[in-house]
Amino acid sequence: MTPSTSTTAPAAARPDAPWSHPADSVAADLGTDTTTGLSAASAAERLAADGPNELPSTPPPPAWKRFLAQFNDPLVYLLILAIAISAVAWVLEGAHGVPVDSLVILAVITLNAILGFAQESKAADAVAALSAMTKASSTVLRDGNRVVVPSAELVVGDILVLGEGDQVGADARLLSAASLRVVESSLTGEADAVTKTVEATAADADLADRTSMVYRGTSVAQGTGRAVVTATGAGTEMGAIATMLDAVEEEATPLQEEIHQISKMLGIIVVVIALVVVGTLLLLAEDRSSDTFIHALLLGVSLAVAAVPEGLPAILSVVLALGVQRMALHKAVVKKLTSVETLGSASVICSDKTGTLTRSEMTIQEVVTAAGTTVVTGIGYRPEGNVAPDADRDGQPDAEPLAGSLRDEVTVVLSGGAMASDAELTVDDGVWSVVGDPTEGAFLVAERKLGTEGSREGRFARVGEVPFTSERKLMSVLYTDAKHSTTILVSKGAPDVLLERCTQVREGDPVEGTDEGVDHAGGHAAPLTDEVRAAFTGHIADMSGRALRTLGVGYRVLTEDEAREVAAAQGGDADFSHLEKDLVLAGVVGIIDPPRPEAAVAVAEAHRAGIRVLMITGDHPATAGRIAADLGIAERGARVVTGRELSAMDDAELSAAVAEANVYARVAPEHKMRIVEALKSQGHTVSMTGDGVNDAPALRAADIGVAMGITGTQVTKEAATMVLADDNFATIVAAVREGRRIFDNIKKFLRFLLSSNMGEVLTVFTGVVLAGVIGLSDHSTSGVVLPLVATQILWINLVTDSGPALAMGVDPSVEDVMARSPRKPEDRVVDARMWGGVLLVGAVMAIATLTTLDLFLPGGVIEIAGVSVDDLDTARTAAFTTLVFAQLFNTLNSRSETVSAFSHLFVNRWLWGSIALAIVLQIAVVEVPFLQAAFSTAPLDAMHWVVVVAMASLVLWIDEIRKAIARARA
Q1: pLDDT value, residue 198
Q2: pLDDT averaged over the chain?
Q3: 214 half-sphere exposure, CB direction, 13 A CA radius
Q4: Is the pLDDT confidence value at 355 over 60?
Q5: With contact defined as beta carbons under 8 Å apart, do 749 and 894 qualify?
Q6: What integer pLDDT is reported at residue 242 of this predicted model?
Q7: Which residues are catalytic?
Q8: What span, in angstroms and rounded, lies between the C-alpha atoms of 182 and 177?
């Protein structure tokens, strides 16, 4: 092809619909030379002008904004208010020393923010690392030389050099194509490779019919070609789909919404209580001096600190982060911490078929020849399995080995199909893969299973071919046979097309058979009678009905004149299609993309957990129905809804369809989004899995999108909230299990934090209200006295809210989390049942604490000689320690609402370690002098400690009674 323009000419106006224009004119319009490509300088100029060849995406917020976002929480707002009140109180008291309360609370919320920021950054880094592993490169012509450049550096006008196995880096108009076939499933959902040609197509041709174009994100399955880049980045078809994501709004996860509501409710409650109590004290106080006002402010701070579980944001972040790390170990990379719980709440998983539920490895399962039917066992590209007769056609191999005429015929079919192929079967570190068309690779694998692949080595030499086209539905190759000094033609294609060109049928040697492949010696060909033709047609219909893709294989020996014609045309572009006649039918094969074996187990586990699994694919309805039945997604013969049907449905009809149908075929991206939205409107929490660009909008629209890490495209990974590093559907079920366990643990520490903080609130509130009854008023000079001081309450929260609560966040599952139905979106994390338990435990804590205070303080309800003689600091220390120990007992209660605390008592070593540490720290606060000064404590004797432990244990015993009653009622 002659140069169309200078290598340094600037790009002119880009043509509309380049697939409809001649290739030369497109290259000329783009200012490129089709033989030498762009110069390096011109490419650099265009890259600087147009920007990198990257898909559009929202830039991530800067680090400082992500850090500040950690403070955007009602709980944090309330603590900031507590800091301000404490600081004002400190100033009014004379600003002596340092404002300990304010500084400690500030340190807590700052540490919470740092922790949340660090953990979310860690998850983002993991996804970025995975994305970096999949950076693509492309081969282009620059200054007349072939060079490999990052696909991100491709520019409009670049000449792409395409070969088998290459990823297409940008949209491009073909300049040349030799047997070029491209897999476009990631863009169109079509599983079969598409034949590409240089000829222009209609300007209004659908995307899948633009055979003169190659598109970013697709891959070359066969052949070679060259193409001029017509669009990069956002201008590509993949970029156009990516822009659809901007129209989908992200919603808060169920966990985010629930925690937000709890935070808001706690904030309102504590503000109301604090205002009422503080206002009442100020109104009723006889002495309204500044000292009284300061103590009232301190009371408000105490109530705020007591009511707000300030450890909740940090503990929630840590528990979710630990869950993310566990999922990463199992090949599931979560991009956002709160998405973990959402996946655990999933009630529907919508999955693509190709590569997700199936292996994306075409496999021959059945071979039909004149002598009978043969089954091929084993799945995938690893050549492990047997080729055995199947006399009763039940799909199971017979006990007898493959022999005689049947073996001869099967050998000819498999070796013939392998010869009529451009694919290669390779192995790297024990992993088998196919370079080229997956269907052609299936013949190579089956031939290896038969053990005859070596018989062709050194015997056959390829001398020509007739490429496959979608119109012909047939391809042929020509070989010289050194053993017989002949030239043969081997054809492979659609069985109906091949049968029309066949006049004979291969009949194998009934005595010994042969492993020599396509061998015409011995006269093993008989007339293809109407009866035999009808029998083959029936077998083909049967295999098609079982969703097997059928291909026929035929051959013939060329005449001497035809052989000379082929030899004379070697090296040219001669058309040998006229030789595809009078063929000998070798047989027909049935091929399927087999389901992943672990996918069936995962589907069954999902069903056990009450989760529906939907298959949504662009493949043929029969194939989709067969795979769905094999995996247990749907019953055999169940309804398969097609994209055409979906387009004709209104919203009501669609809602009815998604309520019953589990399999959808021939769907487009907009159909997937409608399905997801219909499911969500029915109250489902929807997870969508996929790997192709056509899945991306639905992934973003779903409650949680799951992208494939190996085969997934960049836009899909960006749209998803979780990436599967192993592309394994079973990993999703493992993530669901982990999500449910995490949710259970979140409920555990919420139950613990809320009930413990409720105990603190009721202790402070009731202690002030009943100060005169329990003897507190006798120890006040201003009329206002607290049962616990603010620093003691803060200490309780730091000691019990952090270690024990965090340990409960990693508690092993006590029950089978997959044996229950998914949590409904309207179900609250903290429901009425939990609130009842929280109030009960909080009340018991307050009663035990104030009873201890009253017991040791003179002038109260309980007066025991020799016991009720302590000063305020000692009695308050005993009450303070009782509340701490009561919360430690509460850690055992909170592991379940109904299961006894003594069940699986010692399975969580982290919990027992945190309890032991808290006990040691509390003893230190009580007994170490400098800590006594900091926290207003006094030493306790043995009697005090016995009473403290006994009173604190009431929390455990009373809650055990409640659980026993609940179990009896259940």
Answers
A1: 92
A2: 82
A3: 36
A4: yes
A5: yes
A6: 65
A7: 352
A8: 11
